[in-house]
Design goal:
Layout (H helix, E strand, L loop, with lengths): L1 H4 L3 H4 L4 H13 L4 H35 L10 H16 L7 H11 L3 H17 L2 H12 L5 H24 L5 E2 L2 E2 L2 H28 L4 H8 L11 H7 L22 H5 L3
Antiparallel strand pairs: 1-2
Helix pairs in contact: 4-5, 6-10, 7-9, 7-10, 10-11
Length: 276
């Protein structure tokens, strides 16, 4: 392809959606038995996209249903209708991407919605789980669930390697940031502002919820941060048998802990929770 076009290979093969939908299809069309390989290639793209949609849609729908269960009775009985509604909405929102100028909108969303925000969220997840919740608690929970302790490789990865790599990528992303282009087209300032609004839409809920959690507490600012960073009383395994084994507070309606010989009345759960 580079030879026919008379350009360097780097000018033919570039990352982005054009690689899968422009460059690869043309390369496949030049292979012996092109119709067969074209069918196989696009079938692979179809199954890859379908599998990704299953994961993303199930994650969103489950999260919404989990929140709505406090306000809507038997919300899970409407899960099929909810799924269909979200699929239709997603289909309608995706139609602009297949218009004549859709590749420019797709590139804008691909760069901004799946770049800066994902790095920021991943870094926050590691900080919250490994450093705020504490990696020792995390390892204890995993050990109980898996029935074996994670080895040193995972410890080093969680504590040092993972955060360091994400910070490095984050810094490199900020230093190497340039105005967005697609081919010879340079996106306007308004388009870039729209892209940063996409980033903000993913990050803002995390910041707002964190500020709200701190605001609800009492005391100085640092005391509020410390209190809001602690796990709630109902955090941990559902069943009291597992909660007792891991040292979590026992809760009524979560089953009997099955300790200290037979059953234990719920009014005495606090004794086990306090180590009595």
């Amino acid at each position: 392809m580079a030879h026919d076009a008379g350009v360097p290979v780097g000018d033919v093969v570039k990352s982005g959606p054009g690689l899968a939908f422009v460059v690869y299809p043309e390369a496949v069309s030049r292979m012996p038995g092109a119709p067969f390989w074209s069918v196989v290639f696009f079938f692979m793209l179809f199954t890859l996209g379908l599998d990704s949609q299953f994961v993303m849609m199930e994650t969103i729908i489950t999260a919404i249903c989990d929140e709505l269960k406090h306000y809507v009775a038997n919300v899970y009985t409407y899960k099929v209708k909810t799924t269909i509604a979200f699929c239709i909405i997603g289909f309608l929102l995706g139609l602009p991407h297949v218009t004549e100028g859709g590749i420019y909108l797709l590139t804008l969303m691909d760069v901004y919605s799946a770049g800066f925000s994902l790095l920021f969220i991943a870094l926050l997840e590691i900080i919250c789980v490994i450093y705020v919740y504490d990696f020792r608690r995390f390892v204890r929970d995993l050990t109980y669930m898996l029935e074996f302790a994670p080895n040193m490789y995972w410890m080093v990865t969680w504590i040092i390697v993972g955060p360091s790599i994400i910070v490095f990528i984050f810094i490199f992303f900020c230093i190497g940031y340039e105005p967005l282009t697609y081919g010879d087209y340079v996106y306007s300032k308004g388009a870039e502002a729209l892209g940063w609004l996409m980033v903000l839409a993913a990050i803002a809920p995390i910041i707002i919820c964190a500020v709200h959690a701190v605001w609800k507490q009492e005391g100085t600012l640092w005391e509020r941060i410390v209190k809001s960073s602690r796990p709630t009383d109902d955090w941990g395994p559902y069943h009291n048998k597992h909660r007792y084994a891991l040292g979590y507070k026992l809760l009524e309606g979560r089953g009997d802990p099955g300790m200290v010989g037979g059953t234990l009345p719920p009014e005495n759960y606090h004794m086990l929770s306090n180590g009595v």
